[in-house]
Amino acid sequence: MITVVRRRLGLALEPLSRAVLVSRNASRTFVARSSAAVADSALLRRLAPGSSSYLRAGLVRSPRGFAASPASGQAATEETHAFQAETRRLLDIVTNSLYTDKEVFVRELVSNASDALEKCRHDFMAKGEDPGELAVAIKVDSDKGTFVIEDNGLGMSKDDLASNLGTIARSGSKAFVDEIAGDAKDDKTAATGTAAANIIGKFGVGFYSAFMVSDKVDVYSCAGDGLAHRWSSAGDGSYTIAPCELGDGDGQAPARGTRIVLHVKEQDKTLAAAEWAVESVLKKYSAFVGFPVTLNGKRTNSIDALWTRSAGEVSDEDATAFYRFVGGAIDTPAFRLHFSADAPLTIRSLLFAPSDNPERGFAGRQLEGDQSGLSLYSRRVLIQQNARGLLPQFMRWVRGVVDCEDVPLNISRESLQDSDLIRRLGEIITKRMLKFLGERAKKEPEKYVKWYGKMGVFLKEGICGDQSYMYKDALTPLLRFETSAEAVKSDGDDKPRHAQISLDQYVERMPEGQKDIYYLVAPGGRKQAEISPYLEHHKRKGHEVLYLYAHVDEFVMQHIRTHKGKKLVSVEMAEFDEDSKDAKKDDDKTDDGESLGGEAMEKLCQWFAEEALPGRVTGVKASSRLVGSPALLTGHEPEAMRRYRMMLSMMSDDATAKKLDELQMSAGLELNPKHAIVKGIQAALESGDEERKAVAKMVAEQVFDNARIAAGALDDPREIIGRLNTLLEKVVVK
């Protein structure tokens, strides 16, 4: 009847607290589980070695602390039990279909052993006793084809083995957490909270991963009362329970705790019985388990889970070693952030800012798709390396560990289920890391500027990326730029240096009357910026100008647009009031003498537009902002847009490419009426000498092309070589 009800209700995964007897031929249900997962029922009869129960059981202690033999009254018969049909099918599913990689069986068994040790520690602390040194020991033998894992936590009695290993998806660890959580209000010690926080198990299926690589699994366990039993199954529909001796030899159980022996399949010996393979899996998944884990006598988790400590408890040396371990890096981190939160999610994390770009150099590597540089843990056990979908792409440089107890896992603990919760987790981490960088920039400005020089490209990517609307306000204050300000010599510097400043600092230094934030794109560096004709007006006005040396910087400025109420304007596109008093005063006289008069200048501009440069400019006019340059281009496409157009042209057909090329002609020209070249052209045109007029036309064309070069709008400078040679020849001959 019970079987029929279970089938109708689909309760094959329902945890059972005890064996179900149906008839003489029916028996207890089975679900194999590790020492940790099966130890919860043992809480009812836990006894430490050396207690009075050992005397009552008639045991004699050996020098190694194990009982020499079981009591004479112990049953010596072997009992055979049959699985229920649906349970056997479920076992087959768990064994063959639940996990993606077979190697995770190591993680599951270690996690279960860790839970058994945590329960043991909690139990002894509650009684005011010392549990002794708690540890997990693993031994592999490739010749014998065995994998053995042992813990000295809370073991299991005969009834525990039958009930706990007879119910699939019954999580003793979860039941333990629920039990102590109910008593937490009355518990005046920290033991209860610590134990609950350190328990890993949740689903009650981890033990079954052992059958992925094993022909047979033997479980030897003792609850500490001197009565040891062996549970054995090949996962083929039945299991056996029989008494066994206490000891540390083959076929014996530890005095307290559980020993699991996996008889590895022939085809899986390289994975499960080879020391190097098991060690690799241990370091990958279980490097930070809270108890010592040894493999053939060698400890594998020597690096502590530093994210569980406060920042003051972690030395720089330990942090660097941890960073290199989890990040696979060879450099030293520039900054590290210890971040903890209890709401809205329980988070413990240790994040690093690399000192070198992790995508460049000898050890550089590119992450795939939505991978991050963070390892996602849950209660110290690795869930996902390079966790996917956790951080936005521009934060892929962050390295470290995030441990979240609330992370939604599927039953195999290999993937995440609640994408919305993961998104919120990522937002919390991202915003906190950006805030931390802002704090470092203020406290250690020189160190931050050095870091920004290598890593700033990622911050710029964030401003221009798809999630700019979320993080632009946090990213913008982190940007750093050189400016037109004079170099300053600081303490310890051999020579003056041009400081890099933030947009906040720029706004603070703006003179009264300046309305906008000005920038100049100069891919060629500072020397190129200093000779730009677009800078002349701002130098005269005392305006500071940001120098942008990277091509992407212009896209960044276009995405920011405004900062603290100030527009970001390129000096190439800036508009000025030419009729201002200052402009008229400056136009009156120069070092070269008087400027061209209004009528003469108007005729010269008309000649430039109609005869010297027909169809090549949208207009020519006199300029009031030029000081030392004869001309400049206006209304032209920005540097970044020009490069984008060139890329499109290469990918387009001839007709489209021709239309794209026409875009570069949409520019005007401003002439400096005070410049000697401009006045010389005017004089040549009024001379009546045809040869001088011809030279003046070539000079006018060269002035225009020079302005295009200064604006970065000349795609192919080879076209001006012929004209330059002709002009040079005339100069030399003259």
| Overall 3D shape | elongated
The total of beta strands comes to 27
Structural class: alpha+beta
Helical segment count: 24
Helix percentage range: 25-40%
Average pLDDT, rounded to a whole number, is 79
Strand order of the largest sheet: 1-6-5-4-9-3-2-10-11
Return Rg in Å.
39 Å
Beta-sheet strand percentage? 15-25%
| Cα-to-Cα separation, first versus last residue | 118 Å
Sheet with the most strands? 9 strands, mixed
Task: List low-pLDDT spans.
Answer: 1-74, 188-203, 587-592
Task: Write up what this structure looks like.
- The model is unreliable at 1-74, 188-203 and 587-592 (pLDDT under 50).
- It contains 24 helices and 27 strands.
- A 9-stranded mixed β-sheet has the order 1-6-5-4-9-3-2-10-11, with helices on one face.
- The chain is an alpha+beta fold and 734 residues long.
- Helix 12 (445-464) runs antiparallel to helix 13 and helix 20 (639-651) runs antiparallel to helix 21 (654-662).
- Strand 2 (136-141) and strand 3 form a beta hairpin.
- It is elongated, with a radius of gyration of 39 Å.
